[in-house]
Every structure is written in C-alpha cells, then in structure tokens.
Amino acid sequence: MLILFIIILPLISADNNNNNNTSIIYIHEELPSNSLLLSSISSTNSVQWLPSSYSYQTYFYLNANQSLYTTNQRIDREEFCEKNLCNCSYCLLTLNFLQTFSTNNISIRTIQIIIEDINDHSPVFKQSLIKLPIAENVPIGYEIPLEPAVDNDYGLLSVQKYELHPLINNPFRLIKTDKPILKLVEALDRETKSNYLLQLIAYDGGSPSLSGQQKIEIIVTDVNDNPPVFDRSIYQQSIPENEKIDTIILQIHATDRDDGENARISYSIDDPSSTFRINENSGEIYLMKSLDFEKIRSYSISITARDHGTPQLNNYAQLIIDVTDVNDNIPNILITEINGTHHNNQPISLPECTPKGTTLFYIYVTDDDSGDNGRVSCTLNDTRLNLVYLTLNAYSLQISGSPQFDYETEQSLEIELKCTDYGIPSLSKTNLFHIELEDCNDNPPDIISPLPYNETVSIPFETTSIPSIITQFIIDDRDRFQPKNFTYSFIVSPSLDLSLTNNGTLILCSMPLIMGFYTINVTVYDIGNLSNSISIPLHIYSINETIVMKKFSMENTSLMLILSFFVIIFIASVLIGVCFLIAFLLRRKKQSKASLCLCCYSCFNIEKKSNRNSSCESMNSSNEHADSSQKTTIEVLDDGRNSSNRIYQYVVKQGNDLSLINTRDNHQRDFNYSEKVERYLTHLNSGILSIDPNLSDEGVYGSSDLSSDQIQQINLRPPSIVSMPSSLQQQHYQDSLRRFEQLYSLVEHRQPTAFTSDSLYV
Prior knowledge:
- The protein is an alpha+beta fold.
- Helix content is about 15%, strand content about 35%.
- Among the domains are: about 15-115, Sandwich (Immunoglobulin-like); about 130-220, Cadherins (Immunoglobulin-like), CATH 2.60.40.60; about 230-325, Sandwich (Immunoglobulin-like); about 330-440, Immunoglobulin-like (Sandwich); about 445-550, Cadherins (Immunoglobulin-like, Sandwich), CATH 2.60.40.
C-alpha cells in the first residue's frame, strides 16, 4: 500500500485559476487515507464547510492548519458515479468553503477535485456458466447474442474486446469483439457431437489489461431452431418520479418463427432492486416501488424472451428507464451564527444603532430537486435587513440601514424569511426569527421648559433682588435606558453676569450698568454629547420710564379718539350734500326736456270774410307778444301716465326755426304755415267738400285728445268736415274756430302740466 501511495502521490497536482478563491486538483482514485491534497487553503483560520459540500466530508477533511486531506474512506470513482456525486464521464467534485476574514469581509473558497480513473476493476460476467441449447438444424450463419461483461471502470478502462476459446474443433466464431455474438460457421450434427464447451474472455483497456471469463456450454438439440426476436434491441422509457405504483411503464414484444409451443414466448427481467416486474405472457412492465429522482435517476434492466420449444431458445434486450425530476421537495433552510454555530431560534439582541452592512447570520438553502426545481430564491419581510448573495443558495443577512431601527418606536420585531423554489408548482418554506432591540443614545435632549416661542423675560431694575432666578430648565430625553444627566453651557450677548447650575437653573448674579435687551443662548448636552439649544430674550428695564411712557400713551389715545369723531361727522355731511345735489340736477333735467312745434300763424289778410275777421282779430291780439320776425308755436306733450292725453304749450320762436317734428323719428320740413292756416279757415268758411287730407285739422295744430279732468275747457275733437252735410259744415267751422281760440288761450297762460316730452310737435 505504501508503494502504491509513493507511485500515485506525484500524480496529484493543483492548478490555481486566475481567481485566487478557486483551485483545481487532479487526483487518481484509490488514494491512501490521510493523503494531503492541498496545504493551507485559506489565509484565515475561520473556514467552514458550506452545506452544499457536506456530502464530501465523508471523504475529505480540513486539519487545524486548514489543509485538505483525504479521510480513511476509500476514494472510488465508480462509487462517486453510482451515488451521483459526480458525472460518470468527467468526475468533478466541487468543495465550497466559507472563509471569514472580518465581520464585513467574507468570501467563498472553492476547491475543485477531478478524480481520474485507474484500472482497478476487472470485467465480470453475471453468470460464470451459461447453457445454450441449439437445434442441430440451425443454418450456417445462425447468430447467438451473448450477455456482455460488466466493468465498473469507465472509458478505455472498461471492456474493450472479447475472445472465444478454443478456436480448433469449434463451429462457432465471435463476430463482434465489442459485443459478444456467436456465429455458427459450420453445420451441426447432434449425432456426431451433442455439446460444445467454450470459454468467453472479456478484456478491458488498461495497461496491463484485466480480464474476466465465462464458460459457455452449447447443447445441440434436435428441434426448435428459431429463437425469439425482439422488435428492438434497446428499449428506453422516461417516467416521472411521482409515477403511481402498478402503472404500466411500457410493453415489450418479441416474435418466434416457429409454430406451436416452439413459438410461444415467455418474458422475464433481471431487476435486483425489484422496482419493476414484467408480465411473462404479455410483456407489460409494471412499476412496483416508488421512485426517487434524488436517489436513483436511471435503471438498466436486462430482458429475456424464451420460447417453449425443445430445446428452449431465448434472446435478450436491454431496457433503460430514466427517472425525471418532479418538484416534490421543499427547500431546507439552515441558519448559522457568524462563528459557524447553528442558530437555535433564540431571540437576538441587536443595538438599534448597529451600523449598515453588519452581518447577523449566514443562511444556507438546499433543495433535493434538480434544475429549476432545485433553484431557490429567498425574501425578507423587512427592508431594514438585506440578503447578500454569496454563492448558489447561500446568503448573508445584513443590516441595510434604510430605514434605521428605532428602539423608541419598537422594542422587538419578528423577521420572516421565505425561500421558494422555481418549480411548477413552486414550493416554499418559511423561517421566523426574533430580534430584541437595545437602546442607544441616538436622541438629543428635549427642552420641555422654557418653550422656544416664550415671550421676552422682563426684569425690573429697581425692584429685582440679586441674585434672581431668570428661568428653570426642564429637560427630557427619549432614550429610555440612558441616564438623565445633562450639562449646560450658555452665551449671552451683550455681556451679562449670569450662572447656570447643574440642575438647569439660570440665575442673574448682578444687575448690569446699562439696561436694555439681552439674548441668552443655552445649549443642553446629554451623556453622549448630543445637544439641543434655545435662545432666551431678556429685557432689563426701569420702572420710572415705564410709568411716563404709559401716561403719554393714554393722553395720545384720547386726542386721537376726538379727532376721529370730527372727521367722521365731516365726511357724513359731505356725502349728504352730494346726494341732495344729484337729486336736484336729475329733477331739473326732467323738467327741461321740451321740444318745439309749429302751431301758430303770424297774420291773416283783413279782406277775408267777416266770420274769418273775428278769428283773425283774436289771433292778431296774440301776435302782439312777438315782432314780425317771430311766430307763435304750440308744443304738444304726451302724458307718460296715459299715452292718449296730450297738452299744448305756447312758445315764441324765430320764424326760420319752425318745423314739423315727430319724436317717433318722423321729421319733415313745414311748408308755409301761414298759408296752411289761411287755407284751412277759408275752406271751413266756404264749405268746400273736397279737402286735401294734408289740410285736416290734425295736420294743422295736432291732436287734442285731452283728458277731461286735466283740461275741462277743451271739447272733444270734432269729426272731419269731409263727410259732413252742408247744414253742419257751418256749425263745424264755428266749433273749430272756438276750439282753436281755447287752445291758444290755454298755452298763452302757460298752465303747468305733468306730461312728458315724448311729444308730437307740429
């Protein structure tokens, strides 16, 4: 054994990657126990195995100097492959260690061990002796497949070739050296020789080569010359690990060209684990035990088909069953302290002022499933803590610092860690751990009294006894378990003789020479040197000056009240006068609204008829009020209260101003008013029937629809003379003349009316 170690030890080599945290070691299997693989894997003494590498602690260990050794357990590459600890074609073991340099400096140390195969296994046949009955009438070229040997070594070190002995007096030849198949090259004759004893030898590719042998007895029979034939030489099937028991996995099928009993086939399987069974008649394969992908991922089963002839013939096929992973394992959570000890779910004491980035725990998560079913992510229910990714399914729990813990708000908290895999459906596991916060001195003192918005402290100069207490400070601190011991300092401007005791009493020790205002800035400190400040205004004044100022203030107040009273009376008088003036102007404006209307005549010819002379004389008497350049006008006013009433006013105007005016937007120039009046009277006197409509009495002097209670002297308007008989025309003339004179007399005396200026002027 010592000689073997001396030979193998130089084959151990280490290759450091560019990353100093990863090393690659090449070793051969069958190393002696306590073999040194790598000395001092880390510069720190705080190195611990990660949970993902726990399965390798059976074969490797770290000594006190952090050197990596093999244990007394045998290093067998084939055993690692069988246990799925490494890939059979490339056996790579990954050992992960957590190395801690300081509280905030941790890293992952990875050692990759590649185990190279040595030729330590010989080829082995399952049966050392097999008997093969063969009919004598089988044709030349008939092939008999044989069961291959098994070599636990891999690659070139596994079975590479077969040899058949003896070669003399043997009608069979081995036609394939990688998979044994006997081929009949000469005809058989049972009567000449009824059996043959052959030796099949399997060789591996080692140097020197190792071998295994099997004895084959061939019995020549007289009947049944066709063995069963499978429709496939290799059957492969994938089933999920949660497949139910007694489920049919698949059905195999073989045929036999013989007839009768020689063609009836029975099936059997070689399954040492008894996980599967086969129906010997139908070839249906059933699942008999629960599968577990995490334990066994693949099954290789040999199937035999035998006929019922004499002699009995058989054939072989291979069945490979792959187990697929199902997400049936919940994640496992392991929480360790900084020193590597297992966390026992006891409450953790944590000062509230713990700095950001401090590591509290290491968290390792494992999931026995593979692929996405074994990939896990973790979350926390509190943002004040943070999960820092270390390596696959490994985290450190650290203080995030945003927001900070506050003992004054909460004294304890419960953290929920939830880890969920990526399977469908996903499975998760939750761990709870409790944190008890401890108080830190993180709050400055609170000044309860005096308040910052207090008024100025006033001290009379004459009556204040010295020393005098200015104020008493009342201080509190929100930190619960911190001593309530406070210190004070102050600055006063301008200078003043003050003292501040340890209990917070501010004292004026002596009066200053100059009275006035002072500002005292006081700062309070707790035992942690956290502080708070307040500014206190102080006023030192003289009582005598205050009395004089108060008297002067009261006298000024009385004088101001008297002046205000007189100003108010004056403003009220001015407003009343303005109101009366506005009312007077509005009334005058109403009374002055008037317009002119032509309604008179100047003079008539005295050679007219006698009945016209009398009316001419009456009108001439009225013309004496005006000279020859003036004419008499009569103004027609409408009544605002009754639109049917009108009244006439007398006005003397210049002759060239006379016009016929209608306030309803109807204006036209008067034509020869005197001639118009003369024609009117002439027509009335002569009794002419065909009178021009423009010469009606309304066109001469306007409407006379006057109300009876206003002007009783004016009669109702007479009817037009156009439709009157001749006997009445004389009477109508007299009535019109009389009415004209009455109207003239009315406007002559200018009787007052209440009519508006919405008038028709003629």
